[in-house]
Predict the structure.
Amino acid sequence: MKYAKYITLALLAIGFAACEKDEIEGTIFIDPVENPDTYTYEFDQWLKRNFTDTYNVEFIYKLDDNSTDPNYNVVPVRLGMADTLAHLSLYLWYDAYKTVVGPNFLVQYGPKMIQLIGSALINAAQGTEKLGYAEGGIKITLTKINSLDTAKVDEMNEEIFKTMHHEFSHILHQQKTYPKEFETITPADYDPSGWQYREDDNEPDLWKREHFAWEMGYVSCYGSSEAHEDFVETIANYIVQPDENWQYMMDHAGKKGATAIQRKLDMCRTWLKEQYNYDLDAMHVEVQKRQNNLDWNMIMHMYK
């Protein structure tokens, strides 16, 4: 059983569809100068008010070839999807941190740039897909935005918001090193080149793998690649996964796996509190509350 709890949000889906219906066909590329006559000007000014002026972050949705990884062919994000994700980011991410850790936390520690890419970043040779990455502690890039299904909370978490918490946690541990004791909990099974052949669940599928990530003490396959990925995957998954999903994982991890995952979670919880006065449990509760109360009309009213 993969996480199969899909929550259909009728109002949200209708709102998003309405948001995108007037979208101009084609792709969005970087403008040489800001121009009030362009059809993106109103949205650009909204981004400036809600992201740059409020959180000191540049929200980048227009494609600039110089700012993307040259090893991948990428597609620009559609304007309607950029608008959708910007609103959701304020509600599910920025305001969640503001509520739990205070209004200045993301201003001080958060990324200075968030870049959106419409397509996936595929490594065909390794059989992997990059959902996002952080650069130098100042920039987070999110991919596959054009295929985001806003009616499925689990899918949005897996593709976007877990990635945002994951990459932001990288920024936090790059500024203040995470405890090295974390690396001693499951040291033998980290596999930077073979993690993709492990599966997050205990039911057979098309993957050929040697072990199950949960049973080895990892919350995800990718978490079993390296210790620093394990650390941020533990944080990100705990924040976005509903309690029943987390409990399902623990119930199916076996005693050894569940004990290791719990030790890692406790260590993450303590480190965040001591280093950043960041209550991980409070963040989990706040994000779950927001996920369960998504309403597009409310979000549009909140962020004008």
